[in-house]
Amino acid sequence: MDRLSIEGSWHFRPTVHTDPRGSLAEAFRAARLPHRLDVAQVNCTVSNAGVLRGIHFAAVPPGQAKYLMCVSGRIMDVIVDVRVGSPTYGRWEAVMLDDETRNSVLIAEGLGHAFMALSEQATVVYLCSQPYTPGREHGVDPMDPAISIDWPADLEPVLSEKDAKAPTLEEARVAGLLPDYEACRKFYATLH
Fold it and tell me: What average pLDDT does range 173-177 have in this prediction?
């Protein structure tokens, strides 16, 4: 796995084997991950073009690490550092995931995550280290100008009501909703 510019995020590019029958790629192997991921829940979303999900994160500990892959179509997957005190706080990085390259991303607990469907329809499967727990789940406005994610200009973003009403990064910080960088690092140390 290749380390991305935000600590706690990685990009995996599998070898895709093809022959006249089709193709095969090893999508996930726990022993090769640079960050432990005990799978507690598997989610599958189907989104139409322009659907934007996120920016979501969970309170740490225990947070929620995610391993994501786009099994049909194409998405712009975005990792946002929402950990207060992190050297990359407020920064984002995007990775294109699609059903041809079969690339995946691994995102550690405490990082924000969002994605936008770029194809007519996109199916995303993600493995989660913790089950969804409403009281621990939070969001930040994916259109926050302070974060300034470069979403594709040719698609009109389609957000859920919850995501559209999410606080800005600064509002979430002031409200005490954001994870603390040092607390996250201490939590990561317990995973080895």
Answer: 98
